[in-house]
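INFO batch 0412 | record 1 of 1 | parsing
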Amino acid sequence: MADFGGTETSADSIVAPQSLTQTTREKLRQLVARIEKLEEEKKGLGDDIKESYAEAKAVGFDTKVLRQVIRLRKQDRQEREEQEQVRELYLHALGDI
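INFO prediction complete | emitting C-alpha cells
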C-alpha cells in the first residue's frame, strides 16, 4: 500500500482517509478518473481490433497467420532474424527440416 509520498508501507501503517490532505484526495480522484477513462479506451480499442480481425477473416485472410505477422512486425529486424536462426537450428536438430 502506498503512503501517498511515493514509498511503500506495510499493512500495519495504512493511512486513514481523514488523514489525507485535500490535495492528496484530489490527486487520487484524478488518477482514478484517468485510469477509468484509459480502461474504457482500451476496451474500445480491443473491440476495434477484434472487428478488424473479423473483417480480415471475412475477406479470406488467415487471422492466426495475420496475428503472427503483426507480432513479428513489432520486433526489431535483427532480433527477429536471430530468433528465426535459432528456430531453424532447433528444427534441424530435431530432424523436422
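INFO post-check: The chain has two domains: 15-61, 62-97.
INFO record closed
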